[in-house]
Protein: DNA polymerase-3 subunit epsilon
Amino acid sequence: MLYAVVDIETTGGYASGNGITEIAILIHDGVSVINSFETLINPRQYIPDHIEALTGISNDMVANAPVFADVASEIYDLLHDKVFVAHNVNFDFSFIKHNLSEAGYDLQCNKLCTVRLSRKILPGHKSYSLGKLCAALKISLNNHHRAGGDAKATAELLSMLLQNDSEGLIHQSLKSTSKEQALPPNLPKSEIDKLPLTPGVYYFKDEKGKVIYIGKAKTLKKRVCSHFSGNNAGKQRQDFLKNIYSVDFEVCGTELMAFILEATEIKRLWPENNRALKRYEQKYALYSFEDQKGYLRLGIDTFKKNMPVLYSFNTILEGHHILRILIKDHFLCEKLCYIQKNRIACTGHEEGSCSGACVGKESAPAYNVRVKYAIEQLKSMLPSFAVIDAGRTEDEQSCILVEQGKLYGMGYISQYADVNAPDLLKSALKVYPSNDYIMHLILTHTEQYPQKRIAV
Structure:
């Protein structure tokens, strides 16, 4: 088996927006280096000052160097039938695969990460950065942050790993069934091994334990691993993977419960890498309030988090539809409900469907009685039901409780619990906030599976 030990220097941290400035490839036969390739590369873009200070590679040095396409064929021939080895392999691989693809080559090969292997085969070191690890292991590292120097040190590290691999971890990593080399460099495989094959919500955490991403899954292990497949060379993905140090999770009885928990947790923790659900906000709501003359008024306004809401919706049209039903059924004043403006009296008063609250002909107490009946009708129009489904074990069942069109809560109950007793259900459930997004999920699910919906 031949290994291609690779190191590159670049203009920045992600392949799609940066270039390679230097590459070194050492062919290792499992004992020693038998062939080598090294060259500067003209990245066809400016090398930032801080990169030049780190690597010593200047814009003048690469001005007359070959562009990657000029050496792509030679690089592909060296790599395509070898095991690709690097310290933090997915970084180097993403750059080289991206640049080879731009030149018309599709690189497909096994990968080994000397960071991950060192953590397993040579445990107990404070740091696994190449510089500090080489110092601890007394591996000579000359010309650090230059491709040739770092590749040579990585090749020596590979030799040491091969010699000390008493448990055959390298061979296991190269099996077609092993996905370990696709994992982020700082995420132990044990974090993946602990994930169950059940629905749930997972939490990616950084080095300090801060949640940086929340996701939901029908099958936790499969979904988490899917984040690490592919070779997206963009900055967002590369930074995201680099910062994953651990995975936490919460098992849910059903995928629907995972959807609800995910939406709630994203709003609660606000992880930096969750964007879609963070942008979701309810748009409009129906409110009631008492004006200065004592009249109860119904009105549609933009959704406000800290105000009690009668009903929320995403389009003005939907809100007006509901409000007009209440006006018609309870002879309410369109002007006091903000349907009509710039009139002394509403048209309903002229037609006889409004008793004149808009012009003071009907007293506030008399008018307010009908408004209260309208609010009660609205509540009766909004459904109350439970969604009963599989639990986390055979001894329980899951329950999602909706009360008057809003999520009350969810949790797990006995197979023998009386689902027609709402108060008993509530005592067993955890309360969750409700919004239109969550209710849309629930209602869509119950339309698809009406047998799971039980009126309460």
Notes: Residues 147-164 form the longest helix (18 residues). The CA atoms of residues 382 and 405 lie 5 Å apart.
